[in-house]
Write a structure and sequence with these properties.
It is built from 4 helices and 4 strands. With 104 residues, it is an alpha/beta fold.
Length: 104
């Protein structure tokens, strides 16, 4: 990955390829490949990485590794037409951690 990528999307089926239409570099991958892809994107200076919600929920160790870094920002995104509310739970947890109470 020698090219400069600012935003990327990773999913496990062809629906992620639709992000190419708006200029986002996409990767069709399996959960086992995520750590390496995210690391390569991190090393290339990628700032935002969208990850299929289903895959996102299966990589807590990878998420923990990058949670103390400013970049990349790893964001869950429903890509199969239905949401499991992983993203909403993450926002809720972050707000509760920041202000000390659950406002949702």
């Amino acid at each position: 990955m020698d090219e400069k990528i600012s935003v990327a999307a990773i999913g496990n089926n062809d629906s992620v390829v639709l992000f190419n239409a708006i200029g986002i570099k996409t990767y069709v991958a399996q959960v086992e490949e995520l750590d390496k892809i995210i690391y390569d994107l991190y090393k290339s200076g990628c700032k935002i990485i969208y990850i299929d919600e289903e895959m996102y929920s299966k990589i807590p160790n990878v998420l923990e590794k990058y949670s103390y870094q400013t970049y990349p920002i790893l964001l869950p995104l429903p890509m199969n037409g239905k949401s499991s509310n992983v993203g909403l739970k993450k926002i809720k947890d972050n707000v509760e951690k920041a202000i000390g109470i659950d406002i949702f």
